[in-house]
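Student: Hello, beginner here. Can you help me understand the protein record under this note? Any guidance would be welcome.
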Amino acid sequence: MQSMTRRTLLGSALLAGLAACARPSDGSSPATTGSDGGSAAAALTLGLTYVPDIQFAPAYVADKLGWFTEEGVSVTLRHHGANESLLGALQTGDEQVVFAGGGEMLQGRSEGVTVRNFATAYQTYPATIIVPADSPIQSFADLRGHSVGLPGEYGENWFYLLAVLAQSGLSRDDIDVASIGYTQFAALSGGKVDAVVGFLNNEVVRFNEAGFAVRTISLDDPPLVSAGLGATDATIAERPADLVGLLTALTRGAELCASDPEQAVQLSVDYVPTLAEPDQQAHALAVLKATTELYGGQFGVQNPGRWEAMAGFFADSGLVSSPVPAGDAYTTQIVAR
């Protein structure tokens, strides 16, 4: 099984897409931003993985408005380099918390990384199958004999496609899997593939903005856990109050993003360089509105049944080097406090 590296979670896969690029680490050290105040003992570095993007607006809002400090934690927001290992900074202690997919953390756990998800941000899994509006593909079964494009055979898009195949009675041999990088829009609109795997809060938004009519075909309840916050077992055991403070401030940020996305975009301008352009602000607003719909009723809440389902699915699909009990991959300790 390939080693875990940072591929953008939702990044330019929410900037280009919530997907990823498995590449070897180059030891890059990206710039950081942080809130003032708080004691050194309460310092936390939050790894936001890959380039600055509006998907991380709850963190930007919480930082800009001083909510981390109000909760007694001094938080540094750190974006990973494009070639950086997803969980590498967590392992070295350069980060105490990382924003990543639940499946990625489960994979990391199987490889000996003591990462554990303590809050799930997206209660709705963001991936979906996207086809042109006039496509003859009306259901998953109709994918048989057709080409399906996605960034590559890794990350959340890949997990989703495997879940689609498993739940629809298809095998990989029944479709033509095309690794197209983060070119879902060009590939589908240009007729290079018959369908793509993309994200509700990224590719679907881009198709709509471009006026290219599409339909989505989605699983009702995929056995997958999406983006959330992870920390090592040691950090969770030794610093629960700090993690509660972090999560409380992020929850406030998420609530503002949902209630006033226009303000959230403006508060994020200092953190996302591209937002200096008005057209990018309009796009970010559309992405943020779609993203907040994924939060569900409670930002960070855990779904034990879904974790159990994912642990079994990953083991059955060969997505982990060794099976991982669901209870080893997540905790409700922080959300419940």
Notes: The chain has two domains: 10-124+225-336, 135-217.
